Amino acid sequence: xxxxxxxxxxxxxxxxxxxxxxxxxxxxxxxxxxxxxxxxxxxxxxxxxxxxxxxxxxxxxxxxxxxxxxxxxxxxxxxxxxxxxxxxxxxxxxxxxxxxxxxxxxxxxxxxxxxxxxxxxxxxxxxxxxxxxxxxxxxxxxxxxxxxxxxxxxxxxxxxxxxxxxxx
Length: 168
Prior knowledge:
By secondary structure, the chain is mostly helical.
């Protein structure tokens, strides 16, 4: 479901208002931040459209793929949390939902009798791969920019993440 096309860009209008109110020094930054937020909404809506029929959210899909890519198909919640850059509670909530659907299971950590691993089930692996095929075809291969522009965007976003302390 796509939003109706707007005749006037509200971010351009907001920038104009910022400048009219004497906030010219912040107007471009406000427009950039607002544009990033809107772009995130648009991309997430496309991803949700692809994943909804599979009864997945992007957060749960990311966890399935993290487990898929792990050497053993299993990780401790704390390690998954670190790698996904989310709070352990968010991972636990995703695990609860995925476990209820039979896509992951909790197992005792064989190297630490007290610890629990989250492990991908065969059904979870199959669904992760099916979702990846769809996301690749409908979103990742068609970001909405020319390939060289996609590379530029990635470079700019990496710079932004680095300056925000997200990367070393």
